[in-house]
Design brief:
With 74 residues, this protein is mainly β. It has one helix spanning 13-21; strands at 4-6, 9-11, 27-28, 32-37, 44-53, 56-63, 69-71.
């Protein structure tokens, strides 16, 4: 499990998933570099895979510098 700095705070994978989801999650994988830039500020984007429920797996993306976040839901 790798912690990362997001908007000046150290976050765990679970906390990062909660920031993207806006709610608590059941489980989260390790944080990874997303190899893309933030569409709002151009900052570095990181990703985390997580399960918001027992039947769903989502990959979430979060900028390390601003409030932008997204997920891979259709």
């Amino acid at each position: 499990m790798s912690n990362r700095v997001v908007q000046g705070r150290m976050v765990t994978p679970e906390k990062l998933a909660e920031l993207v989801e806006g709610d608590s999650v059941l489980e989260a994988e390790s944080i990874a570099d997303a190899d893309r830039d933030c569409p709002e500020c151009g900052g570095d984007v990181i990703s985390v895979g997580y399960m918001p429920s027992v039947t769903e797996f989502v990959t979430g993306y979060k900028c390390q510098e601003c409030d932008w976040s997204a997920d891979d839901r259709e």
